[in-house]
Amino acid sequence: MAVVRARESDINLLARLLRAEGEGEGNQGMLMIGNVGINRIRANCSDFKGLKTIPQMVYQPHAFEATTKGYFYQRARENEKQLARRAVKGARIWPSKYSLWYFRPSGDCPPTWYNQPLVGRFKLHCFYEPTGKECENVYNTF
Fold this sequence. Notes:
142 residues, alpha+beta, 4 strands
């Protein structure tokens, strides 16, 4: 059962995002990027209020650097589609389990990002989880 609604075109779009943002991080890293995207839809808080669909999340201005780069426009492969389906069905792994932000710094992870604490690093990406009541929806179980 999906935790957000997704048509096949949405799966393809999310899969392209996973590939563009995290291909170098392997399957686990790409799934984590999917976690963050799905969390943004489910949380409905902070910079992500009103996001209800995968296209809204993917194309939110300034949300993902990959959407402004040519690499995002490569086709989704079956592997990324499977990872996108897993994310849509609610598969979550630490440190992205409840994260709404991630990025790839040139060095160490800063202790906060958008005023949210660092929860962990996977390979080259740092993940940040919200605190307080404003984003408590991200912690809801499915």
